[in-house]
Amino acid sequence: MTTAWQRHPRDHPRTVDTTITLLLFAAAFPGSMYGVSDMTTPTQWWPCILLAAPSCAALLWRRTHPLPVTAVAIACAAGMALAGYVMTALLLAPLMVALYSLAGHTERTTTRNVTLTAVILVAGSALIAEPATDSLALNVIGPVAWLLLPAALGTTARFRRAYLESVHARAEYAERTREEEARHRVAEERMRIARELHDVTAHHLALANAQATTAALLIRSHPAQAEQMVNALGDTTSAALREMKATVGLLRRSGADEDSLQPAPSLAQLPGLIAAHTAAGLTVTLTTHGQPQPLSPGADLTAYRIVQEALSNVAEHAHTSTAEVDLTYHHDRLSITVTDQGPGTTPAPETTASTDSGYGLIGMRERALSIGGRLHAGHRPTGGFEVSTELPLHPYATAEDSTP
Q: Which DSSP state fits 269?
């Protein structure tokens, strides 16, 4: 947990730099008391202080201009070495802080070149001022070690900061990706629910409308047949309520057991669908070609919903009493064709709205595309309307086989 005193340096960097500058300038006074020639006799202190002042003052801009600050510190440190002072950590401290800041804010190549330059200038100046062989450790080894240390620490700090920033960026990207994926899944689920509700309501309402219209026409001339039609109307509305209740119930359920859910509609229920339309006055002919094969649950539901929507459009808009449903089983796909014998090739206004721009045709296309199929709908040259689709029998197995 970050405490208040740990947050203070980050929140007040100018105060921290000022404090460091004053402390390093104060350290220059004891550092100026030693010389190589005579370690026990203090040398003149004022040249060292004059050179330490600009070196320490420049540290106030070490965060924004690390390279110029380091250049000033190198020049001052080389001047101290030429003046004969022992380049201890007390006198090299401003240059060490500058090198640390340089390594933390610039690239590795710049840090390496500047550090090498500082080592050569400071150690070379010390050797020029005191070329005696017995002072090699003080003039060369010590300054080299003190100057390489802050450069290495600054580079390590920069790498660590870059690593933390990359981790933070990856975490933010992962969070955004999860949110986008969640929104995408919610949108897909809304579309799926919208298609299901549209199929349920549109089919049953279109069928109920056809039954009610037929019953109204037959109520005087054929009362017995009209009574059958009214009874069938009750069955249609009851089925609509059951499917609507089941669909909406899924939305309210937070964790439903699979055993409690009703099976999804499939092509096995196609005879009942055709019987309901036949009772409403639409004669539907079902033809099957090829050997029937089992479909995946998604393909089976999609095939049923496409036939259901196509027959609903025929009953509501085609102004005809006949329709044909053709199922053709191929090796790896199922072809479905729903045609009607509507009058002429020019559709009525309501037909155009339903088939060209309505949600029924859009929903059928989306269903077919969702499992890797395709759908085509349009007017026939000889009259009427046709909906044809090709669906893969096993879309998930096909996708796995195509995966390298």
A: G
Q: What is the pLDDT of residues 137-157, one digit of tens each?
A: 667 788 888 899 999 999 898
Asked whether 336 and 354 are in contact (CB, 8 A), the reply is no
**Block residue for tokens 């190549």:** 109
Instruction: Provide the pairing of β-strand 385-392 with 333-340.
Output: antiparallel
d(CA 241, CA 167): 53
Residue ranges matching CATH 3.30.565.10 in the chain: 264-404
Alpha-carbon distances, residue 204 vs 122, 307, 349, 368 (angstroms):
93, 13, 22, 21
Q: Which CATH architecture has domain 264-404?
A: 2-Layer Sandwich (3.30)
d(CA 285, CA 279): 13
pLDDT at 337 over 90: yes
Write out pLDDT tens, residues 170-219.
Answer: 888 887 888 788 778 777 767 776 776 666 666 667 777 777 777 777 77
pTM: 0.45
